[in-house]
Amino acid sequence: MVERRGTFMKIAILSQDASLYSTRRLKEAGEELGHEMRVVNYLRCYMNITSHKPAVYYNGKLLESFDAVIPRIAASKTFYGTAVVRQFEVMGVFSANESQAISRSRDKLRCLQILARDGIGLPVTGFAHATQDIEGLLDFVGGAPVVIKLLEGTQGIGVVLADTNNAAKSVIEAFRQLDANILVQEFIKEAAGVDLRCFVVGGKVVAAMKRKGAEGDFRSNLHRGGKADMVKLTPEERTTAVRAAKSMGLKVAGVDMLRSNHGPVVMEVNSSPGIEGIEKASGIDVAKKIIEFLAKNAPSGSTRDRIQF
Questions:
Q1: DSSP 33
Q2: 98 known member of a binding site
Q3: What is residue 3's predicted lDDT score, i.e. its pLDDT?
Q4: Nearest one of 105, 186, 198 to 149, comparing CA atoms
Q5: Element (H, E) at 31
Q6: Do the annotations mark residue 221 as ligand-binding?
Q7: What residue ranges define each of the domains in the chain, with the CATH number in brackets?
Q8: What are phi and psi of 101, to 5 degrees?
Q9: Is 232 annotated among the ligand-binding residues?
């Protein structure tokens, strides 16, 4: 592990695009706090996997002397992105989120199963392989309306609201014809198209917002025209968000939940949550919170001895 020189740190932001808002804000926040920040396109990294001197190269040059990395891994590039993060971990570099935690959260089914194991509130969720089992699946979810989700979908893509059981069967059969894996969840009507995004850093909720879907769309994703506003969380909602992030092993996470009649239910835990929407809605410098967390924890936070494969 590289020794810190006073309060100075050398931090790599693993991102495909230096112009993205989240990447820019992290770089700016780090530089304002006196750290050396570098944006590294993880897809252009290549690795020397050896027992004696593991290394990461970028544009033909050795990447070394980093105190910490901040992974901003795209969902479609999870396999290679987490391999790069894992290589930095093997080298003893502290990561804002460890590779195993990123992989765990990216698998929606695995994520929900872990949250269920830890007793965290969830919508009733079903998963099946054979179309012959659709009737039973819909029964224990509670019947239509139901939400059908592609396991590989992101930013609201591949999420369908089926108003009737017949419509749900048609959608499920169509997805299964394409050999797509899906989840079927109860529709939380009382949420009224509004969800909560809680931004967790180092075991604390540092910012939160509520998101409302575009007119006529039950999905609240900002990428799909949703709008964000400030929100005051209840103690239970804060606790749920922190527990969900901890269950995934994520030190930096965006926890999405709905307000249901039986308390907060978690929909997703995001390992590379966007910063733009929540900074603008909450007025909180989330990027600075992340850098401050790294400055406090990276000096003694080498992941080399606890890396999991």
A1: T
A2: no
A3: 42
A4: 186
A5: helix 21-32
A6: yes
A7: 10-97 (3.40.50.20), 105-121+190-271 (3.30.470.20), 125-187 (3.30.1490.20)
A8: -65, -40
A9: no
- Residue 220 marked as a ligand binder: yes
292 is in an annotated binding site: no
Pairing of strands 10-14, 36-40: parallel
41 marked ligand binding residue: no
Q: Where are the alpha helices (DSSP H) in 77-164?
A: 78-90, 99-106, 108-117, 134-141
Instruction: Give the position of tokens 């069967």.
Output: 169
Map 139-165 to HEC letters: HHHCCCCEEEEECCCCCCCCEEEECCH
Q: Which two tokens stand for residue 2?
A: 């590289």
The reply to whether 4 sits in an annotated binding site is no
Query: φ and ψ at 148, to 5 degrees?
Result: -110, 125
Half-sphere exposure of 195 (CA within 13 A, CB side): 27
Is residue 238 within 8 A of residue 274, CB to CB? The reply is no
Task: Give the Cα separation of 178 and 191 in Å (integer).
Answer: 31
| 195 known member of a binding site | yes
Q: Is the distance from CB of 73 to CB of 271 less than 8 angstroms? A: yes
- Could you tell me the pTM of the whole model? 0.87
The reply, when asked if residue 197 is annotated as ligand binding, is no
d(CA 76, CA 42): 13
- Whether 187 has a binding-site annotation, put simply, is yes
Number of helices (H), then strands (E), belonging to the chain: the values are 9, 16
Nearest to 270 by CA among 123, 105, 157, 149: 105
Amino acid at position 49, single letter:
I
Q: Between vectors from CA 193 to CA 122 and to CA 110, what angle results, nearest 5°? A: 30
User: What is the rounded CA–CA span in Å between residue 90 and residue 51?
Assistant: 10
Rounded-to-integer distance, Cα 250 and Cα 150, Å:
23
pLDDT along the chain (309 residues), means of 10: 60 97 98 97 95 91 94 95 97 96 94 96 87 80 88 72 90 84 90 93 97 65 70 96 98 97 95 95 97 88 54
